[in-house]
Design goal:
With about 100 residues, the protein is an alpha+beta fold. The chain is about 65% helix and about 15% strand.
């Protein structure tokens, strides 16, 4: 987002919008549920196999999720391990409840 957008809306509003964007696609919601339900780091290869989507598509979705701060990507063995960051979802949930 450009500097004028940051000045217009403020950092907190932009962070909330990035979280909303990170959740705004069925594949990303599925990825988040899969990581949460397995309660462990999950590889891009595993996600690609589970969803039937190409690794490139998975990587695209993970990048958007990382921008929203809801996952962390750790490079390991020519792939990424994906870790869920629940605090960002909690922040968004609190915003919706207020």
């Amino acid at each position: 987002m450009g500097a004028s957008t940051t000045n217009l809306f403020g950092k907190e509003t932009i962070h909330l919008a990035l979280i909303a964007r990170a959740l705004a696609h069925p594949a990303r919601v599925f990825i988040l549920q899969y990581i949460r339900d397995n309660n462990r780091m999950v590889s891009c290869v595993e996600l690609s196999s589970r969803l039937g989507l190409s690794p490139t598509t998975i990587h695209h979705h993970l990048g958007i999720m990382q921008d929203g701060g809801i996952v962390e990507l750790n490079f390991a063995f020519q792939s990424y391990d994906v870790v869920f960051i629940p605090e960002r979802i909690e922040q968004f949930s609190h915003f919706l409840q207020d």
